[in-house]
């Protein structure tokens, strides 16, 4: 295994920076070619992905946990008292 040196870290960071610059240039060229309607649609889709979708997933998980907890409490209350746990 190679040793990690300052030069190798510098080379890695320079490569990452070059990749970001290439992505930014590609995005800029893409935005210049898009119509205003397409830019609006892309912005709305990005907003949906970044904001609304995680919120919906978190709320789904919270309500599912609540449902399981409520269901477990009702199931525990409906057990037949004639049968005892073996513990």
Automatic annotation (TrEMBL):
This chain belongs to the protein called DUF3742 family protein
Q: Which UniProt keywords apply?
A: Membrane, Transmembrane, Transmembrane helix
Transmembrane domains' residue ranges: 39-66
């Amino acid at each position: 295994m190679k040793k990690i040196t300052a030069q190798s870290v510098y080379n890695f960071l320079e490569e990452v920076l070059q990749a970001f610059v290439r992505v930014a240039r590609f995005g800029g060229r893409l935005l210049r070619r898009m119509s205003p309607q397409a830019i609006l649609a892309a912005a709305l889709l990005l907003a949906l992905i970044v904001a609304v979708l995680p919120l919906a997933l978190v709320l789904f998980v919270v309500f599912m946990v609540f449902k399981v907890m409520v269901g477990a409490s009702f199931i525990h209350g409906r057990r037949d008292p004639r049968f005892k746990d073996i513990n």
